[in-house]
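> run fold Beta-xylosidase
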Amino acid sequence: MKILLGVAALLSGLFTNPVSAGVVDSLPDPTVIHARDGLWYAYGTQNPVFSSKGEAGERMLPILRSKDLVSWEYAGEVFTPQTKPAWHGGARLWAPDIRYVDGRYYLYYSLASGDVGLATAPGPTGPWTDRGDVLPAAAQDACPTFSIDQAQFTDVDGSHYLYWGSYDTICAARMNADATRVEGPVTQVARGRRMEGGYVVRRGGFYYLFYSDAGCCDGSYSGYQVKAGRATSPLGPFTDDEGVDLMELTSKGAIVVGANGNRWAGPGHSGFVTDLSGQDWLVYHAISTADPDFPPITNGPSGLTKRPLLIDRLDWIDGWPVVRAGAGPSEGAQPAPVTSYDAGGTFGEGSLNAWQAGPGWQARSGQDAHGYAAHTGALSYVVSAKKTPDADVRAQADLRVSSGAAGLTLAHVNRNNHVVAWLDKDRDALVTDVVIGGTSRGAQATALPAGFDLGTWHTVVAELRGTRLTVQVSGDKLGDPVAEQTRPLPRAAARPGSVGAVARGAADADNVGAAGLYTPVTRRVPEPSPGELLPDFSDEFDGTAIGAKWQWVRGPAPGVAVSGGVLSWPTQDAELHRGTNTASVLLREAPQGDYTVEAKLDFAPTQGNQQAGLVLYENDDRYFKMAHSVLPLARGNGAVLQVSEFLKEGERPTTTPPTAVFNGPMFGGPAARTMWLRMSYHFDAANGETEVRAATSRDGRRWVRNGVWTLPAKGPLRIGLISMNRSGALAQFDYVRTYRD
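> ok
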């Protein structure tokens, strides 16, 4: 299958999600790596990727390949029925995580049986060697979770860690020296309702744990979102952006990406990649609301949801990651990642054309790197004939050293005027130097981890922004540098120039190039704020009885009272869920046009499933709900979780009959005894849809903005309150206020 070029991407530098369109039907739980051959590779969960082409059954851990992160081709699969190890049994294979460790590609994956496997290969498409189960029984027993959704991370001291877990705890432990087996004590680092898909990126002195929560695979009703916590240690404690420990028994904030009301539902189970300009990208799956489900699959499981591959810009704002500054998954054309160098290149299939090579350099080729430059002898450079147009650049080189040292040179005018970052085998260090007029302005050394093998490929990345130089060394550029150094440069050294490699002794270089440095986005998209208060659609509960504008469905509910500016409502032992509609609902009319309804709620539930909050209600089978709920943990030994639960109920058109109802929650910010709940209504006339966005607050000032649920617009919605599911708690509503948007 040829690479689908994508006219827009080629001609205008744009892309449109999903980037896997026309290649595979689905690529769930994606992970991506920039390989030594200069190409990008994506790996996904076992799925019927060619169902639309008439293929029965599934591919086991399918692989895609791309030159630009936008246009992809199918490149095979990790296992076939013939090569699948016997110890897998009949388990399906899920959630791959790709890394480059000690000169080989490491692909960790989950088994539906609850084990974690590892396959290694000399190249990104294999041949793959089974390395068995990396998670011993003792580690599984120490973590109250389903042992899937693993991810590996290498710290600055060279130690390896594994993160794993699903429904509802994420655990972490150190691995052995070659990252093939967990051997350290297990630490629980996060827990939450349906929490899973964790992986760690280190940035700016913090370790960021990305994860997903809610439901991954409920078609257009999937409430999946990506969230993050951060810590100063790879084993935590991790906290969200309000300082809530990820181990606390509540839902969490710091939402990285959630549904925004366009075609994409359930964005989640993400990966991470950085383009050649230094811009980070979130790699994730999402579900098209127009085409959410697979038809029945021959020789495969039933009821599968299509989850194609998406990419979107990942910004870091005020120390926290967020997709597109908070705008959510993209639908239309977007600026594409930078995947071509302004100067430099990959040495093709073994060519030094377009390079100025000093003595001792020659072109070679190999299985993984394909073309590369090899050096033996005295100090010598190989630099690009073309110079970078800007002084602010991101330069990188893949280097390996047999003896002596190899370095990345940038802002290179000549050997007497340049900046260099060395991997020095004699000093076991990353060494930077600035040379102006033939004179060094001072070398600086940062130790490499003990046992660091310079004889295998490592990437040196240097970012020059103004007069600030930052250099990182990593195996795979996946947010896990093992050495990092930052230093100021003299202004005379911060200039456009060539990029290249330099070596003394025996060393190799590949993928040497530089591109203009990305411009970071530093402000989030404006948060919507309510406008004019609409008194006719609001209530401060200042009287002694429920006002005449309120009406009951299945009411009045027992024990409801209004006193002292509060509506008090004991939770009912009743439900509003699919075919069980026994709970009372207190309703009033909503205004015409767009609006936001807000309620202040005091609620201290103590038992699972007690809940109270707001609804926008059409009927028992079509509504939106934002509630403070208590939900049991799947493997919590009776523990319950206080959550901000945002869900919808309505038709699932792909079911038979299409009027069947289905619902799925998103989980918002942290819950507290006193909560402020919001739902914002918008009618999308272009698509004939009702859109509702939710937000929560614990102080009435700082809001956690949740995702958006949509339903085909039919009848009008009314504003309502509920207090239900299990008796024994008391909901106290201080007010209901409606604002014009």
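The helical segments are 7-12, 137-141.
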